[in-house]
Amino acid sequence: MFSWILQNGIATTMLVSFVMIILFHGIRCIETDDRLSALEINVQSLTSSIVTIQHKLLSWNQLHQCVKPVSCLDIYFEDRRNPSGEYILYQREHAVKVYCLFEGDYGFTFISRKSADAVIDVNALYSTNEFAKIRVLKPTGDQREVLVENLLSFQNLSKLFFAMNSHDKYKGPSPENSGLHPYLFLGFLPINLAENGNSQGYRAKDMDFTFVNCDGNPNSYITFFFNPKLASLGSVGSTNDFMTHWITSSIAIEYPKYMDSSFYMDWEMHMGGCGGFLTSKVVNIKAALGLPFAIPKV
Known about the structure:
By secondary structure, the chain is of the alpha+beta class. The chain is built from seven helices and 14 strands.
């Protein structure tokens, strides 16, 4: 508010007026031209100082306004009372629409499909990759959520992998669904671990869900498509209990914490070799990936 007043010149006018009042009353007591000249010089010096201070404050205010948030953690630090909700982040001169979820020791960043054209630095949006939160949107409009992790037996060998338009060291999304790009990628096991014919899978709501990789096909991921062209999935897959446990294990979200539907995306999930291939079209459920970040204790 103070900087706004300075920008409009009101503070300067008030201060100069105050000085002129002093000058007016002082003139009545002036006995010589020398004293009048000295007073005029002091007034000019004071006015110059006021202008200098005004310029410095305006420069500080402009600089402060240019520091734009690049993550939900920045939003949190701006005011620790900021509620969960929609915010705009700025990355590489691009505005990125997000939903910042603040919960106790951790928060989660959800990216809107409306930011499909933005150049997004996903690494700036999370601080841990030990788990992620997935929210689902049902045809009824109900919204639910679940924490997902790697299986307990793999947690010392591999963390989750988060990326945008990249799946380095992981088997990637189906080429038949490339028309839905760009995409967010959630990888569970990298190729060097997923290509083994052993028990694999994922963990949701503190429960392990597994399958045996029968042929060493190293798929182990869920891809979330921005789908700006509203294209149809080229490969849709089929459902089974293993592939949908993260959905059926999800818990209801309180209505005040619902997200706009623009945060929910088409998706494909591929596990193995004998785990399954499933997309949002088969189950008619959209999903959103929440990237986790630690909230420092005060």
